Amino acid sequence: MKLDTTLAMGGLDRVGGLAKRAEEMGFAGVFTAEAMQTPFLSHAVAALTTEQIELGTAIAVAFPRSPMIHAMTAWDLQKASKGRFVLGLGAQIRKHNERRFSVPFDPVGPRMRDMLMAIRHIWDAFDGKHPLDYRGEYYTHDYIQPFFNPGPTGFGQPKLFIAAVGPYMCRLAGELCDGIHIHPFHTTRYIEEVVKPCVNEGLARSGRDPASFEYATTAFILGGTDEEREGLSSVVRSQIAFYGSTPAYKRVFEAHGWNDLQPRLNDLVRAGKLAEAPQLVSEEILDEFSVRGSFDAIADQVREKYEGLVDRVGLYIPVVGGAHEKKWERVVQSLAA
User: Fold this and answer.
1) pLDDT tens digits for 103-154?
2) Is residue 87 a contact partner of residue 60, using CB atoms and an 8 Å limit?
3) Tens-place pLDDT, residues 11-55
4) Which residues pair with residue 88 across a beta bridge?
5) Quick check: pTM over 0.85?
6) What structural domains and CATH numbers belong to the chain?
7) CA 60 → CA 37, 119, 314, distances in Å?
8) By CB neighbour count within 10 A (0-12 exposed, 13-18 middle, 19+ buried), where does 249 fall?
9) How many CB atoms lie under 10 A from the CB of residue 283?
């Protein structure tokens, strides 16, 4: 099982050092999210300061960019990193697409399918496997001159992942992608009962070997003293409440019989009472959504929860450059061993 880390938000002048340090600590991958910054620029810097660690987006929001923009950006980063880039895309929710990015959202599933097929087609055209001639339901790419075709990377094509929560996207990941980014808002029961069966349906549809597919997730992994874990738990309760208030994620609660929790959280958010929402996240819920332990115990706890279930686990809370960097380095090395 690989252990990844999230790259802390900050200026690009810090990225090279943080990525290099993550590699020295033994992390398998460094991933960025499309939050306060574009998720791609950091990897252009990291690609030039690292040699082995994988670099990827978890996730870049798919629809604000065309398939050609995604394809070319990932192609550049694959070349710069010498074959270490993972293009991870996610649909996000309607409000972000329509009001933050001002792009169409519906129908989200078919649009994502068309996006993935177009990217694959473009990459194959760059590799000289066929002319550029993609004509999908939402995207068309049928014109490129040799001057604009970058040609093969020399390191193969990037890996292609999508984020998925619901059954449709999980099946789509299995059918068209190299792997899946399981949302941090997850439980092991949900992965076992919903995610994996749906991914397997997609793999069967495409006729691919399940061994070639990679399950990745980012998790709330909290290490430290009792006092430090209590402080971090408050942060995680807020994140669980924030994610859980969104209707798109209610299936995860429902897998545990907490059917009324998402509407109650949503009501608080709509009423402007976001500060009260974490109070609905009980210890039982926190246990299902997080791993908490001392630095001596946390590696075994992560292994116990995720080994055999996913191929790679990422730290939701960045630790590179933090106060306990050396202790986390021992955790990473313990998991790698």
Assistant:
1) 999 999 999 999 999 999 999 999 999 999 999 999 999 999 999 999 999 9
2) yes
3) 899 999 999 999 999 999 999 999 999 999 999 999 999 999 999
4) 161
5) yes
6) 2-226+290-336 (3.20.20.30), 227-289 (no CATH)
7) 10, 14, 16
8) buried
9) 9
CA 264 to CA 245: how far, in whole Å?
8
| Residue labelled with tokens 């990377």 | 153
Packing angle, helices 108-126 and 67-80, rounded to 10: 50
Give tens-digit pLDDT for 304-335: 999 999 999 999 999 999 989 999 999 999 98
